[in-house]
Amino acid sequence: MRLTPAQAQAIHRLAQETAGEAASVLLFGSRLDDHAKGGDVDLLLQVPDPVDNPAQLAALFSARVTRLMEGRKVDVVLLAPNLLRLPIHDIALREGQRL
After folding, report:
1. Count of domains in the chain?
2. Residue 62's domain is classified under what CATH number?
């Protein structure tokens, strides 16, 4: 995984601060490949309760992680009970690593 332990811990903390204590976050995509270079940070933010404004929640979390990662591009996929589950969710759940 191409995140430092401190970055992984900080992202986990930001997920809980942004989406609540029950939120969890998984890293997936190219950042899991230790031999790759560059690339954005792909995160699945999973919340157990319905979300009223998913776009706002995803954007806020993305912005906070982007600041933490000093401007690196961050893509956030949100999974909540009231949101449509897409193939990208299944990929992230299958291949992702919990932070």
Report:
1. 1
2. 3.30.460.10
- Using DSSP's 3-state secondary structure scheme, residue 24 falls into strand
Return the amino acid letter for 33. Answer: D
Sign, CA torsion 56/78/21/14 = negative
Domain that holds residue 80: 5-98
pLDDT (tens place) for every residue of the chain, 99 residues total: 678 899 999 999 999 999 999 999 999 988 786 767 767 899 999 999 999 999 999 999 999 999 998 888 999 999 999 999 999 999 999 999 999
Q: Select from 23, 8, 41 the least CA-distant residue to 78.
A: 23
Paired sense of beta strands 41-46 and 97-98, if any: unpaired
Predicted TM-score of the model (pTM): 0.91
